[in-house]
Amino acid sequence: MNLIQSVEVMRQSTPLKKPFKTALRTVYRTESIIVRIQTNDGRVGWGEAPATIVITGDSLDSIHSAIVNTFTPLLIGKSLLAYERILQEIHLSMIGSSSAKAAVDMAIYDLVAQNCGLPLYQFLGGYQDQIETDFTVSVNSPKEMGEDAIRYVQEGFNVLKIKVGKDNLLEDIERIKEIRRCVGSGVKIRLDANQGWQVKDAIRTIRRMEDLGLDIELVEQPVKAGDIEGLKMVTDHVETLIMADESVFTPIQAFEVLKNRAADLINIKLMKSGGIYKAQIINHIAEEFGVECMVGSMIESRVAVTAAAHLAASKKNITRCDFDAPLMMLQDIVVGGVQYDGRVMTFPKAAGLGILDVVQSQSAVGS
Q: Which part of the chain is the Mandelate racemase/muconate lactonizing enzyme C-terminal domain (predicted)?
């Protein structure tokens, strides 16, 4: 009957190899809620939601509460054959809690694809069977960032995402000059300001980098998330591509950004959209406007990244990926799922997400 029988919720916490520093926060370990949904025929679907309070507003406690107290009563006994109804009910059941919704959403999609006997990327569209990720260079001194960049390139990454926006603008320019000097011209460089610049400062800084010939592929979220007019002003006054990230959580926000031509690209994250269901809508809207999308991730394990990677591989309009977070962790808690060969990510032949188990999670905190 494919009925949902149980929902188990666990917490995991894993140290990072090196602190992850952006304009918004410094992270020393991944902390997330792992969701395990089982059906009456024994199948298991996996999901995950990291606590990213400064971006989504979701804490471990709020994610746990939403899943256990609000979503689980809606899920128990429901048939996966009506997964559209299940996902609609989840999204309508409460305002916000996008990360908690994403965790349940990806577990549902995992189970539905398993029921169909297909890897999730094939169930969603199957555009390609492997993808490539960039690697992120955290905000530090220009010297340290240059050394990090060299190491990542030596490990096989040819696209670097550079965090900026934390200190003064001149320091940001020096950071990028040093990284470009260290890695040469054959490596793509993307910048992510995480809302750290003012509008006019962003325009001046990006233009200066253009004048210096630093060859920046794109700049992600240069200004505050809610400042769509400011985002458009930056987009209109520089030649470098501008990507909206924190400005776009929902399909409606995507439509507003796209309608106003406020950005050249959209960064979709499952933790912002509330999962694959709404993420697909955002991508379809962007595609109709002729705007390509990236799929990115928070600091999360290979559970959530596997789900996001399946989405990214399934769609033609998703042309960029930012899935390096699991490579930053000291331990890998996932058995199965998407696999890394340097920057190349490949998918298991198993149905669904292909995740077999999640280990070293801390004790269960609800069911």
A: 142-241
DSSP 360: S
SS3 call for 102 = helix
Q: Select which of 101, 161, 163, 278 is catalytic.
A: 163
d(CA 33, CA 243): 29
CA 65, 269, 311 angle in degrees (round to 5)?
A: 105
C-alpha to C-alpha distance for 182 and 149, rounded to whole angstroms: 7
Q: Which residues contact 364 (CB under 8 A, 6 or more apart)?
A: 8, 9, 10
CA 154, distance to chain mean position in Å, is 24
Which of these is catalytic: 101, 161, 232, 269? 269
Verify whether residue 200 is a known catalytic residue.
no
Listed in sequence order, the DSSP H helices in 57-94 are: 60-65, 72-75, 83-93
- Quote the CA–CA distance of 270 and 110 in Å, as a whole number: 14
| Confidence check: pLDDT of 367 > 60 | no
Confidence at residue 188, expressed as pLDDT on a 0 to 100 scale: 98
Cβ contacts of 13-17, under 8 Å, gap ≥ 24: 13/362, 14/301, 14/329, 14/330, 14/331, 14/333, 14/360, 15/329, 15/330, 15/331, 16/299, 16/328, 16/329, 16/330, 17/328, 17/329, 17/330
DSSP secondary structure letter of residue 1: -
**Considering Cα of 40, then 45, then 51, then 57, what sign does the dihedral take?**
negative
What is the Cα–Cα distance from 299 to 301, expressed in whole angstroms? 7
Amino acid code (one letter) for 184: G
CB within 8 Å of 82: residues ≥ 6 apart: none
Element (H, E) at 100: helix 98-116
Task: Give 154-189 pLDDT, tens digit per residue.
Answer: 999 999 999 998 878 999 999 999 999 999 999 999
- Long-range contacts at 362-366 (CB < 8 A, ≥ 24 apart): 362/10, 362/11, 362/12, 362/13, 363/10, 363/11, 364/8, 364/9, 364/10, 365/9, 365/10, 365/11, 365/64, 366/8, 366/9, 366/64, 366/67, 366/68
* DSSP letters spanning 163-221: E--SS-HHHHHHHHHHHHHHH-TTSEEEEE-TT-S-HHHHHHHHHHHHHTT--EEEEE-
d(CA 190, CA 217): 5
Q: What is the pTM of this model?
A: 0.95
